[in-house]
Structures are given as C-alpha cells and as structure tokens.
Write a structure and sequence with these properties.
With 42 residues, the chain is mainly α. It contains one helix and no strands. The longest helix is centred in the C-terminal third of the chain and has 17 residues.
Length: 42
C-alpha cells in the first residue's frame, strides 16, 4: 500500500516561461500532471 500525503513544488505566482523551468507555473503544472499519471497507475 502506498500513501501520499503531500506533493508539489514551490512556485512563484505569476512567474511564467516558454519552457518549464523550476519555480514557474508551467513547471508546477507539468510536475503535478506527471504525479497524476503515476497515481493513475497505482
């Protein structure tokens, strides 16, 4: 059994980039979507 209590990444609200680099909203979105793909397989 796996328990996930918290996941995510620190983000600076309003910080954007054309590529997902750390601390941008795009990076956060990509990371959360990757977590959800893994959770769907559990």
């Amino acid at each position: 059994m796996t328990t996930v209590t918290e996941y995510g990444v620190q983000t600076h609200p309003g910080l954007h980039s054309t590529v997902p680099i750390p601390r941008t909203e795009e990076y956060r979105t990509d990371l959360i979507e990757a977590h959800h793909r893994v959770f769907d397989r559990l």
